[in-house]
Design a protein that fits this description.
The structure is a single chain. Helices cover 29% and strands 24% of the residues. The protein has helices at residues 22-30, 69-83, 96-101, 103-108, 118-123, 129-136, 178-192, 245-258, 290-294, 299-307, 335-344, and strands at residues 7-11, 38-43, 58-61, 87-89, 143-146, 163-166, 172-175, 196-200, 204-214, 219-230, 236-241, 261-271, 276-282, 323-325, 346-347. The N and C termini lie far apart (41 Å).
């Protein structure tokens, strides 16, 4: 009997200076000879650069998370009907609650996923970082969760300046003064709402770990990376795979404590005095996850297999010294492609012809 072809939907195609992970996930699948299926791009905007990257067999617009899970569910049902999509990898913090809530509907549509549970998603939330640290026996920074700017006027009694103001989904701003903190608070609330996290500022070297948990407390594979170059938004523009026993211990401890299911990213700081502290856990693939493929661990492909209930062996050690350097380039497409997705909400590139080659 011939195995069913994988038709994988991937979200977050906004490959800007603050990129979503979708392009990296799609590249990991497309460039692996073991993957012979189709990839469906699930975009939020017709100008998401990933739409025109030549990686997707079809692209469909999906509703923003603010439009609610019913709108998302109806749109996904249509996409499944049109494409036969049978696997989906959501890759944004803000969209995961909607996808998790729709897991039963996705099962009815015969769309496989491998996501954290709602309890796991809540456990790693930024406002509960201290609880997670205690559960996993890992160190975390001091932090305070606030809902009003008025609370900042006495924040120095609990956390000294400079400090970091964070949103519940995205964004972190280092603040040296009260005025800066108030401004940062208002910016976060305007975009993401409350609560807002105020965290101790730590000086040192930042590491990120992309990892996949098996849902039973085990670790399928992990790639630790040291950031070498940052954008003005604090996003990694280049990084290198490192070997660290301490990072490995913290990742394993997190998996065991949470029984994490699916991909995640651990952000860890090594302070100048040699301490390792867990800064936050992102519940999905990071935008730099193509480095994992480059280091010999195709974690996105592992998630495709895990979502279908296939047995996946634990990966070995990634290639230390493998490095990524991000690049900005101009993609050439045609206005017809843009018009198609704007007017119909979907775009179907010609087979075997990348969009950037279309005249």
């Amino acid at each position: 009997m011939t195995a069913a072809i994988n038709i994988v939907g991937v979200t977050a195609l906004n490959a800007t200076d603050n990129p979503g992970p979708g392009v990296a996930v799609a590249r990991s699948l497309r460039n692996d000879s073991a993957f012979t299926g189709r990839i469906i791009g699930l975009a939020y905007d017709a100008l998401d650069p990933g739409v025109y990257a030549g990686l997707f067999d079809a692209i469909y617009l999906i509703p923003y998370p603010s439009e609610g899970q019913e709108a998302l569910g109806n749109r996904l049902a249509y996409i499944v009907e049109q494409t036969g999509m049978n696997v989906c990898i959501p890759t944004l913090d803000s969209e995961l609650p909607g996808f998790i809530a729709l897991e039963k509907k996705l099962q009815e549509l015969k769309v496989a996923t491998f996501m954290p549970t709602s309890d796991q998603f809540a456990m790693r939330s930024k406002e509960r970082l201290d609880e997670l640290g205690n559960a996993a026996s890992v160190s975390t920074p001091d932090q305070v969760v606030i809902t009003s700017a008025d609370e900042l006027y006495n924040i120095h009694t609990r956390i000294a300046f400079p400090l970091v103001v964070k949103g519940i989904f995205y964004g972190a701003e280092i603040c040296h003064t009260l005025d800066q903190a108030v401004k940062a608070f208002n910016n976060v609330v305007a975009r993401w709402g409350v609560p807002v996290i105020v965290q101790e500022f730590l000086d040192g070297t930042e590491f990120d770990v992309v990892a996949v948990g098996d849902g039973e407390g085990g670790l399928i594979g992990a790639v630790p990376m040291k950031k070498m170059q940052l954008t003005d938004k604090g996003k990694g523009w280049s990084g290198v795979v490192v070997s660290s026993e301490e990072l490995a211990k913290m990742t394993t401890a997190f998996m065991k404590a949470t029984r994490w299911r699916g991909p995640c990213e651990l952000e860890i700081m090594e302070t100048t005095d040699g301490r390792y502290l867990l800064l936050e856990v992102n519940p999905r693939f990071p935008a730099w996850c193509y480095l994992a493929y480059g280091a010999g661990l195709n974690l996105p492909l592992a998630v495709v297999h895990l979502s279908q209930g296939k047995e996946v062996e634990e990966f070995g050690t990634p290639e230390v010294g493998a490095m990524f350097v991000r690049i900005s380039l101009d993609q050439i497409t045609h206005i017809n492609a843009f018009e198609q997705i704007v007017t119909s909400g979907e775009f179907h590139p010609e087979p075997d012809q990348p969009e950037e080659d279309t005249k």
